[in-house]
Design goal:
317 residues; binds NADP nicotinamide-adenine-dinucleotide phosphate; alpha/beta; FAD/NAD(P)-binding domain
Length: 317
């Protein structure tokens, strides 16, 4: 497989890059990865993506973006990239099934993954009460009790979504004030199903076959209590999906790819966009904007390369 533009990742950054590269007749190849549509596809409702007067479901928004990119000639590949060689031209990517993709330019839009609590019981009870996706799993908690951990927009957004199903929801937050937007705070504080446990962390998730409870420690008093629950939803931020590029591209101290304001990494022809570079804004709209920039940069880069090659050929003649 060979493509002038290969995009790794299919969230708003990757799909917007694909749309722009496709409209430049470059027939980009999008490697969709583990989470087609990216994190936004696991979000219940998106109220702040411009152009949608009413909210739109995260999955539907991602699906629309993909269809729009495909309409202009984007190719999709359901695979994971397991190795990259950016020391050769064209770049060489190896998929999980051993296929080789060669790429004249590469746009990295691999996004970020939910940060884990890192407490006993979390891995053992994953998908047995521990979930990182309220949209995907909320239905299974009908009339049940759940605990959400975190105080950001994700924690509150997804808690509000979960109240459609659950009988009781406790938000455990390590401070006594929230970082979430005021509009979400107002909605959460006025929701009768939501109760807050402040200044506290979850130290353990308990249960043998399914989640039955959590150990909650108050950071001010040091007191630990057991709280009975059927589910735990950690929403404590994200870590960038950059392991593939460690040692090859410059990463910052938190593991995000270092790119300039024009999405260019230190390797010419390699661009990065979306949550994989952005630890500040992390919005679907900013990711989409960066995807657009990355595709335009790839188009200009390819045009420059072509121009240089023609010039060199003319000089030989
Ligand atoms: P976030 O804003 O980084 O919030 C993470 C939360 O988890 C914070 O409240 C943080 O506490 C807490 N936390 C972090 N590490 C923890 C730990 N080890 N143990 C316990 N708690 C911990 O992440 P996010 O909520 O996933 O949001 C990510 C981005 O997406 C943000 O830019 C957000 O605005 C955006 N987003 C927007 C919307 C929307 O606009 N509707 C919806 C979802 C997400 P502290 O507050 O004490 O640091």
């Amino acid at each position: 497989m060979h493509s002038k533009v290969v995009i790794i990742g299919s969230g708003p950054a990757g799909l917007t890059a694909a749309l722009y590269a496709a409209r430049a007749n470059l027939e980009p190849l999008v490697v969709r990865g583990l989470q087609p549509g990216g994190l936004i596809a696991t979000t219940s409702e998106v109220e702040n993506y411009p152009g949608f007067v009413e909210s739109i479901g995260g999955y539907e928004l991602a699906d629309n973006m993909e269809k729009q990119a495909v309409r202009f000639g984007t190719q999709l590949l359901d695979a994971l990239i397991e190795q990259v060689d950016l020391s050769v031209r064209p770049f060489r990517l190896t998929t999980d099934s051993g296929d080789i993709i060669s790429a004249e330019t590469l746009i990295i839009a691999t996004g970020a993954s939910p940060r884990k609590l890192g407490v006993p019981g979390e891995d053992a009870l994953a998908n047995r009460g521990v979930s990182y996706c309220a949209t995907c799993d909320g239905f299974f908690f009908r009339n049940k009790r759940v605990v959400v951990v975190g105080g950001g927009n994700s924690a509150l957004d997804e808690s509000l979504f979960l109240t459609r199903y659950v009988s009781e929801l406790v938000i455990v937050h390590r401070r006594d004030s929230l970082r979430a937007d005021p509009i979400l705070q107002e909605r959460a504080f006025s929701n009768p199903k939501i109760r807050f446990v402040w200044d506290s962390v979850v130290d353990e998730i308990q249960g043998s076959t399914n989640v039955t409870g959590v150990a909650i420690r108050n950071l001010k008093t040091g007191e630990t209590t057991t709280h009975a629950t059927d589910g735990v939803f950690p929403y404590i931020g994200h870590i960038p999906n950059t392991w593939l590029f460690a040692g090859t591209l410059d990463l910052d101290e938190n593991g995000y790819i270092v790119a300039d304001g024009r999405t260019r990494t230190q390797i010419p022809g390699v661009f990065a966009a979306g949550d994989v570079v952005d630890h500040v804004y992390r919005q679907a709209i900013t990711a989409a904007g960066e995807g657009c920039k990355a595709a335009m940069e790839a188009v200009w880069y390819l045009a420059e390369q072509e121009h240089a090659q023609k010039k060199a050929a003319a000089a030989v003649v």
